[in-house]
């Protein structure tokens, strides 16, 4: 083998192999995303309503190229088992949110990425929760998570395997992604979730949308999210329903969107009270040095308490 061949992409050597097609597919996704970002930047630079012949020509060029790449993605995706909805979901995930639908506050995670042994919740976890978590509601929620996610694929039930298959064609629309703070060895001490002030609103809105649209409310930990363990709250959405769900959110923004401008005074007051209750529980459980570290991390993440 020639030395130069070692540096060739696999699609240059065997363009029809599944691996090669996969590489071409993700290369196209990258180019699609680059064009999208360039178009957004040009929109920001051009005053609203201004007409510029050169910019118009460039906009048409980029739109045509994006359209052509979208067609290529559909063709390549079909060869590796991805339908139109799966390609759309990949485009969303590449940017990391539903921004194209005007909903930038909603990250999107591929469902299949969340179906792995990191979701294992064993008896030790259930029976050795920190005192501030040792209430009936939290324990019951964790038992449900264990039933939902099982103990990984090894020895998994047929029901669990079927769920994995389903999740591979679904996405999780994220209403909250909250990092864990570990005070010691994560395997020995676990961690404490850094919850935002509005977490009760986020959870309530996710549950309300799940009920309206017949979706599954999702709660679990993802240890691969940006190389840090995260608590994820969201909805499991089949890829062919992402556009429909985005439309439902936009139709009732004050009921489902996230952010201070969408919350009512009553919601803010209730969320504030619940946050104070959580803060009291945390401060009662944690030592002084842990409290100092926890609230410093919290302020760095969310701002002032």
Q: Provide the structure class.
A: alpha+beta
What's the average pLDDT? 75
**Main sheet, how many strands, which sense, barrel?**
5 strands, antiparallel
Number of strands: 5
Helix content range:
55-70%
Keyword list:
305 residues, alpha+beta, 2 domains, five-stranded antiparallel β-sheet, 13 helices, 5 strands, 11% strand
How would you summarize the topology of this molecule?
Blueprint: H1 10-13, H2 18-45, H3 53-79, H4 84-95, E1 108-110, H5 123-127, H6 136-149, H7 158-167, E2 170-181, H8 186-189, E3 192-193, H9 199-213, E4 216-222, E5 230-238, H10 242-251, H11 253-256, H12 265-285, H13 288-302
Antiparallel strand pairs: 1-2, 2-3, 2-5, 4-5
